[in-house]
Design brief:
- By secondary structure, the protein is an alpha+beta fold.
- Among the domains are: 106 residues, Immunoglobulins (Immunoglobulin-like), CATH 2.60.40.10; 96 residues, Immunoglobulins (Immunoglobulin-like).
- 21% of the residues lie in helices and 35% in strands.
- Strand 8 and strand 9 form a beta hairpin.
- The chain is elongated.
- Keywords: Cell junction, Cell membrane, Disulfide bond, Immunoglobulin domain, Membrane, Signal, Tight junction, Transmembrane, Transmembrane helix.
- This is Junctional adhesion molecule C.
- GO terms for molecular function: cell-cell adhesion mediator activity; integrin binding; protein heterodimerization activity; protein homodimerization activity.
- It is found in: Cell junction, Tight junction; Cell membrane.
Length: 307
């Protein structure tokens, strides 16, 4: 036999064996696949987790779905019925897909599809699907100062904690979107703000008159967006005259208080002095002895003299 013909026959034989093995394996083994092992869903909308049976020979395989959250598994589909927190919100679709009709944020977890076929040589297979539920942001809490002075530093804040994935923030002035970097826009090139789209902070390093206006913030993620009500920020020039009057008023008040205290202290001292002078009297002698002047050279006793 020609060597080339022999090699050709050998290849055909090998290919036939491989094909036979493939057919045997496909009919004697449970094999699962899915269209995606990482699935995103939007809250309150339906989502289907696919568990496709590529090969199986058992007529009535046992199909189960488990939800794994924080490492703890719980049944979702068991003994031909939906259970757990998906009992009234999910259904099983042929061949083994899990359809969640109304997803919530609590549905974010790993889901494991398990198929057991006792008549197959490889009687069991499983596939794990990760589900993440997007949650629309709620109305953000916005903090805008009512008034600031030219040249000062101020910060506007915007935050919300419900959205998933975490929200990105954008600020607007008079309904016009502020660019992330003011230097990229001729309209805002004179502004000195720094915007952090991750934290919602809008910080002005040096406030200018043109920074005045109505400000509102928008929180956005893949599920949608929400915004707060616009708030007015007024910008004033530094009031030198007003500051001077305030300082003068403070000095005047201090002087008046000092004079008043001195006046009170002085009158209190005088009152005490008069009181002491009025209370001082020459002691009165209660003795019945009557003294006469020394010019008389003697003294005389009154009848009331007591020995």
């Amino acid at each position: 036999m020609d060597i080339s013909a022999f090699k050709m026959a050998k290849r055909r034989q090998t290919a036939g064996v491989l094909l036979l093995c493939s057919l045997c394996c496909s009919t004697l083994a449970v094999i699962l696949r899915t269209t995606s092992k990482s699935v995103w869903a939007t809250e309150f909308e339906p989502i289907e987790l696919t568990c496709l049976i590529e090969s199986i020979s058992t007529n009535n395989p046992r199909i189960e779905w488990k939800k794994i959250k924080n490492g703890v598994p719980s049944y979702v589909y068991f003994q031909n019925k939906i259970s757990g927190d998906l009992e009234h919100r999910a259904t099983l679709r042929e061949p083994a897909n899990l359809l969640i009709l109304n997803t919530t944020r609590s549905d974010s977890a790993q889901y494991r599809c398990e198929v057991a076929a006792i008549d197959d040589q490889k009687p069991f297979d499983e596939i794990v699907i990760s589900l993440s539920v997007r949650v629309k942001p709620v109305t953000p809490r916005c903090t805008v100062p009512e008034s600031v002075t030219v040249g000062s530093t101020t910060e506007l804040r915007c935050v919300e904690n419900e959205g998933y994935p975490p929200s990105q923030y954008q600020w607007f002035r008079n309904n016009e979107e502020l660019p992330d970097d003011p230097k990229t826009s001729t309209r805002f090139i004179n502004s000195s703000y720094v915007m952090n789209t991750d934290t919602g902070s809008l910080k002005f390093r040096t406030v200018k008159k043109e920074d005045a206006g109505d400000y509102h913030c928008q929180a956005r993620n893949e599920a949608g967006y929400s915004k707060c009500e616009a708030q007015l920020m007024e910008v004033y020039d530094q009031d030198i005259m007003g500051i001077s009057l305030k300082v003068l008023g403070g000095v005047t008040a201090l002087i008046l208080v000092t004079v008043g205290l001195c006046h009170i202290q002085k009158h209190s001292y005088c009152s005490c002095k008069d009181h002491r002078e009025n209370n001082y009297k020459v002691p009165q002698h209660n003795s019945t002895m009557d003294y006469v002047s020394t010019d008389e050279g003697h003294f005389r006793h009154k009848s009331s003299f007591v020995i």
